[in-house]
Model the fold of this input.
Amino acid sequence: MTTTTHDLDFEVSTKNPGFNLPQRLGRKLWAPMWLMALMGFAAGIITAGIRANGVATGGAETTLAAQGHLVTGFMFIGFAAVFAAISFAIARILGVFRDGGGRVQETLGVEVHTLKMPTTAKAFIGLMMMAMMAILIAVIVHLVTAAGTAAGTITVADAATTAIALEAIRRLGVATYLVAIALGLATITDVLRFQAIRLRELPRSIAGS
Amino acid sequence: MMSEGFCSNSAGWVLAWSGNFVRAVVVAGGSGRRRPVGPTVDVCRLADTSGVGAVEGGLQVVVRPSIQEVTTMATIIHPRVRPSAMDDYRAPSRPRTIGLAIAVVGLVLTAVAFVANLVVTGDVAGREATLPWSFGLTTLGFGTIKLAIGVILWGIIIKLWLRVDAIKEALPRLAVLDPAKPVESGTIATPYGKATVSSQAPSELAIHRMAKSMWRPMLAMGIMAVAIGFLTSLTWADTGSLTASAWTQGLQFLGEGMLLAGVSFLLGTILWSIRTGGGEVQQGLGVAVKTLKMPNTAKLFVAFMMLGLMTSVAQFVGYLVVAAGGVNTAAWLAFLGPLRELGLALILAGITLALVTIGNVLRFQFDRIIEIIKTGK
Done:
């Protein structure tokens, strides 16, 4: 049953609804994503050191161009993963509120009121997926360009042009990710507001039951 | 013990007490039209006072055991981290709305730079004039969204305290409290790590005091650095000078690092709110105060944040060296680009751990609330 007594829509049930699918994913996936991010950043900074040494010692132009794409590809594997880890950690917090609120109400033997997924939460998930796709597509093209440049099938000039286009896509992806995170956090303010309202209702609910 | 009431002094400050809890709030208007204009600050419990002062949010108050009298006060100049008497727990969060609006502005700035970059992708001549300012504008856009995240986090802190107030009001009526027995202090194991048991709410951790005082300057300095960097990017686009290029990149990424550090400090302030609020609720009920010890994820969060901030400062120094000349510029720039990204990456890795810690601490608190409801102790 769905009910509205203020501007926040909520569902009523007799049992704790527990974590929903995105929240369960958040609980399971934040740690692998975090580790993948650390590996991406480590690979990126090591490759950057090798490339900087190549620049200082007059390395081959094609090698340096390929390494440039490789460095960016690795670093942005890291950024895609760390932003995903942050998003999953936010989803996990939302799940803790949903499950914890449900458990408290279930323990008291009252109707379990659970906030329906707000629009900000839906936008959070949608933008997060779009941002991740944008960054990952850019990363894949970076790695393909690196391989092509090293093999001689892509010229250094073309590699430079590709880098500029990919930079634009990556940046938009990062900005979209950050906005998604802002929306996820905005959802937490709604959940806190809902819980403050529900908590004050509980003594009356018990008295009425 | 005292019931309820208030007293004021000539400076327009009011001390109000309810039970044995004292709050201070600054008010404006005449005696008939008083309205709070500053934060309500929980000063101290009367049982703890004995003539000692308490400092909170820039406000210093000395409470005497017999007469509640404000003797010393400093101006509150900071945005509050606890709700004022005027905040309505039912109302939507204003910082949330403002934060989302700022985030949209940031996204628009980045989108403009995105289009500019795509336009000059195939235009070699146009790149030199466009890419510098589009870099500056993109980074300004990122900084704007990070500032927006900071504003929303501030809104979360206020809402967390309003939820604490709701728990304080509801829980005594939801649980049948066990008659007071002496609390056995010590350490217990929980699914979320070790926790301390005490009769009093735990004192603030130094890291929490630091977080509460540092988020504002970090956000302010960060957005200023990013904005000044955008201005130097215009000079870079105009003149193509290496100095302007180095200043733009170094300054803007230092600003980004500071903004993320500000966000980290806000997350630390959220952890303070959860810890302090939990302690206040349990102490107010007269039950054992169970507080989670600082988890390993929180310790790692601090380490990553500090390492990331130091890396951001190091890349800034590196760009200053490039601007000064006398080094292999191409080689330095080849390494400084990824290094500046690494600085932000480390802080972001720390932010993930802070969010995970917040999730764990909240689960611990829900378990504790259920325990109090079930056992009354």
Remarks:
- Chain B has a mean pLDDT of 82.
- Chain B has seven helices and ten strands.
- The longest strand of chain B covers residues 21-28.
